[in-house]
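question for whoever is on the cluster today: can someone run the full assembly for these? two chains, 694 residues total. i dont have access anymore since they changed the login thing
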Amino acid sequence: MTVDELLQPILNTTAPLHLDDSRETIPAWDSLAQINIVAAIEDAVGAELSTAEVLSLKSVAKVVEVSRAHGLELTITAR
Amino acid sequence: MNAKHLIGQLEADAGWRSLRIVQKALRGGMSRPESLALARFLAGEKIRSRADFAARSVRVAVASDTSLDNLADPLALRLLERGMFGVQYHAPFAQLALETRNPDSGLFQHKPEVVVLAPLTGIWQKPAGTSPEKVAQVVEEAWSHVTALRKNFDGLVLLQNVVPVENRPFGILESRRNLGHADFARAVNLQMSQCCRETGEAFVLDAQWLAGQSGTVWPGLHKQQLMASRPFTDELANLLAIEIAAFCAARKGFARKCLVLDLDNTLWGGVVGEDGVAGLQIGGGFPGNIYTELQKEIGALHERGVTLAIVSKNNEADAWEVFNQRPEMVLKRADFSAHRINWQDKASNLRELAAELNLGLDAIVMLDDNPVERDWIEAALPEVDICPASDPLEMLRWLVTCRRFDMLAITREDALRAKSYAAAEERSRLATQSSNLEEYLASLGTQVEIGCNTSTQISRLAQLTQKTNQFNLTTRRYTESEIQERMQNPSWRVFWCACRDRFADEGIIGAALIEIKDGEWAIDTFLMSCRILGRGVEKAFLGAICDQAHRSGAKALRGEFIRSAKNSQTENFFETCGFTAEERTADFASWHLVLPASGGLIPKWIALQPPKPET
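^ ran it for u. tokens below:
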């Protein structure tokens, strides 16, 4: 799975997402999107994220890191 | 960790240390063959021949209109999780009616302490209407099994209610029918609860609620039902086992009484020493609201009578500042009966705390987010039950579902308990001002009241027999119906003892059961809540019973001591009360006292109220 496949529908964008993208750079990444990102990762890895992981998900880099910790490797478009 | 290793561990020592290792393995998830091997071992003769087996065993019988035999293995493991060994009997397939009515049945021969009746698991396989009239008929039939069982059984009865099934013949129109299948099940269950509540003869084993939790395949549509008429999935059987184990724990004195809490990242998010009082997460949105919910849950337990305490590595002043300065804190400083907020190791702190509260370590549940601290405590004090979670949400879920503190009744005394610990603090402040003990005791203004066969106190008296471990001469546990039966039996007397002083009303804190045999009063049970000890109330209680015995014409009083893991402080109680020893071994002793007793037992600093007439 790619980062774009996971996040683009949630963040309502077709632009490729990069590791340094975050809540600060993407206006659509609001608290509702945050819940959808958590749910999407949980569905994909088949496990529940811990509270600390949920709180850490503030950038694409963190999304990749947390997914990896649960065995899901998200590929990413190079800038 | 494999089953073979765990079995070896249990064979070497069946104490808390082994139980914790098993518990950990169960939490980590065991493969089915391994958990089966362990369950088989727990059901076997080898473990039953252990010397320490009796104190931890509980005899359970299960009878149903179909088959609940997939309950046996999870129940063995869940009982073990609570520190008990289950000795189980499962009635043959669909033999519920016969087993409850034949006094020579396998069920009665098993001599159970707890009976699980599941009379309606197969209700959906019988062609039946679901009219409102049918509800009463179904409940009446189910209840007949309880009535039949009660003729020869006075232990704990758990009556399992109905699980709604998949079959909705009218689909989305079901709720327009009178009654649809789901509504029918609800109506039956409501009426069953009402029967249990009003008669006190049984407790509902709420399979309907648990089925909602299990979120799995419908009862009638899964493989085990079709292959072996087992109406419950393994997931549901496991949840039922947890619930039954909680009933057994409450009945056998294995319910926990005290919740000890860490502070940083447990009661609030963040570390007060690093983040500062204002930087802590509590209240507001996520994740502060998790801590709010956790505190609410803890507060509810406290209201139910659970004692709260704090053990935390912190500067004490910092910790109290959070309580003082963060209005979002649901729990207040006064809710905690004791605390150890310092930099000592937590095992030593817990030991001290238990001594201060006069509680056994096996009465304690601990919440601590730090896995290193948890491992340390678990290794040093295996009796303490520790929530395995670090994540606050998991901790909250564990606390809500753990069933560690559940009792068979909640009494007025449970609500008084928190005040009682606060009063104890004031009392000890007074003690430091008094020059001698007797003067101090006299200044407390202790008033003791006793009563006999008072039907309104059945719940509290049963609860006392189930909970009291330390000042308990014989540690015999009784259900409410057993207490009631003895109150009505002319050759028994059930005494209670209540106590108040200038600091607190303690409510009913002592119980004594007397059997009258050959003109003598034999003390079957004599116990006193440990927070009262040290004020001579136990002697006043026994003294008052002596007077009653003499007045009703008894020639002598007899008393016994049966050793348990906890009651060594009562070993010489009868002796100090002037009784003469008759028989004495390491674990048992008996005494008698010829009446009238010379010399009063009632300490002069205690005012004894005259006993109330029997009601």
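summary bc i know u wont read the tokens: The domain at 52-252 of chain B is CATH 3.40.50.1110 (Rossmann fold). DSSP finds 25 helices and 18 strands in chain B.
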